Amino acid sequence: MKLYSWNVNGFRSVLKKGFMDWLEAAEPDVLSLQEIRCEWEEADLGVRRQIESAYDVCWFPATSKKGYAGSATLSRKELGFTHAKGMGIEAYDAEGRMIVSTKGDLAFIAGYFPNASQGLVRLPFKRQFARDLAAFVGARHRAGQKVILTGDMNVAPEEIDLARPKDNVKNPGFTPEEREDFKLYLEAGLVDVLRDRNPDVAGLYTWWTARGGARERNVGWRIDLFLASRSLMDRVKDARIHADVLGSDHCPISLELA
Amino acid sequence: MKLYSWNVNGFRSVLKKGFMDWLEAAEPDVLSLQEIRCEWEEADLGVRRQIESAYDVCWFPATSKKGYAGSATLSRKELGFTHAKGMGIEAYDAEGRMIVSTKGDLAFIAGYFPNASQGLVRLPFKRQFARDLAAFVGARHRAGQKVILTGDMNVAPEEIDLARPKDNVKNPGFTPEEREDFKLYLEAGLVDVLRDRNPDVAGLYTWWTARGGARERNVGWRIDLFLASRSLMDRVKDARIHADVLGSDHCPISLELA
DNA sequence: CGTGATAAG
DNA sequence: CTTAACACG
């Protein structure tokens, strides 16, 4: 089973840049999209029909602000995933942040984690989100489920996960507070799969600022991740970053499970 | 002397579309620009230097709202025009509407007349503007000056001046009120030069809506005009509409004086 | 429909 | 630097 996550920075934008070609080539079984920034009905009708012919679509745009945030999860129809919008907490659900998709004892929890924003004005919101999400994951584990947590987490966990750690200790995505909160997911029993399999490999990034050719020079951040319950780790066949895929300031990431 | 007027719908935009090539080819002696929509300092430095090497530049952006309205008048340095920003009425001057340029007994009054706007919400403002401007022209005549009044007047004077008169009697630019107010300029002693020389020629337009290929089908309006004091009419050598010049939803117009 | 300001990232 | 909403025309 091939699981993918991609912050597309505007679904309508990425549609103009070959998203459908990528979708047909990558053939994900489950795909989480973040920053869709539109209603499903605002996307091209032909595209919608084509996607709906193969996938169960759970489209979860923000209701709080038009064109802002939002996430979606697509799963191949034959897999029979059940999709639920939100974690039941209005502050996050109004921004279309997380979708919980289940099949048997597997919970695929995916979406768009808050950005701490300029001046860290949203750091308190993001910290509460991390606490609530970690508790949510813990409850799933106690209920006997195995969890995949993925999406744009808007935090680089360690110094190795960004090109310029020293320059960014006070910046959104690499503050001590955000890194500390990231550990709550690990303490809830999840493993950062790609880093687990590549402990010392530097230069593995999933996001590059659009300013000044950062992507060409690979001055990036690894902020899009797959975390998996420890009990799932023996099923992991592959974890990859698809840095060659253009169309957004993020690139897709994937996890292949046996 | 070749006088030009052009609503450029964003000076920075038209710069990207060959404005400087046009300027060098047209070689205007005096040029009024409308809807400049930027500060002089926001335009490309090379462009500014090139223009300033040949022209006295009177740049008159709106102070009331960034990126809104504004006008400019350029005159060849060797002509020695004196430029004055505004008519001394704050409501118009804050929007960078009119520039008064004088040389000897000639007053070149040029700029961006108000748009009545959707729902005609600005019709009262536009009517007062017309009264004030007509009075301003009258005062110039009584002071012994000859007047050229030009710019985007945002009104089609007669049915012949737009492709769809019947459809637009309630729309901004062709209401009975705006057409009535236009006559104030004529009553102040000015002549609509192009119409005076081409009384029955239809299809002479200077603006086309960007929606639905109106320009290609020449479904337009003549709302950019040169009006001249009757005493100047014997000096008129030519009055033209340059509909082939692209780069804005308006095209340039010109008046050649002996 | 296009230009430009703005919010957000 | 880029996406999308918005104001204005």
From TrEMBL, chains A, B:
Alphabetized PROSITE patterns for the sequence: AP_NUCLEASE_F1_3, AP_NUCLEASE_F1_4
Pfam families: Exo_endo_phos
UniProt cofactor(s): Mg(2+); Mn(2+)
The keyword tRNA processing is annotated on this UniProt entry: no
Top-rank taxon: Bacteria
InterPro entries, A to Z: AP_endonuc_1, AP_endonuclease_F1_CS, Endo/exonu/phosph_ase_sf, Endo/exonuclease/phosphatase
Keyword Repeat in annotation: no
CDD domains: Ape1-like_AP-endo
Residue ranges of every copy of the Endonuclease/exonuclease/phosphatase domain listed in the record: 5-250
Keywords: Hydrolase, Magnesium, Metal-binding
Family listed: Belongs to the DNA repair enzymes AP/ExoA family.
Matching PANTHER family: AP ENDONUCLEASE (PTHR22748), DNA-(APURINIC OR APYRIMIDINIC SITE) ENDONUCLEASE (PTHR22748:SF6)
Protein name: Exodeoxyribonuclease III
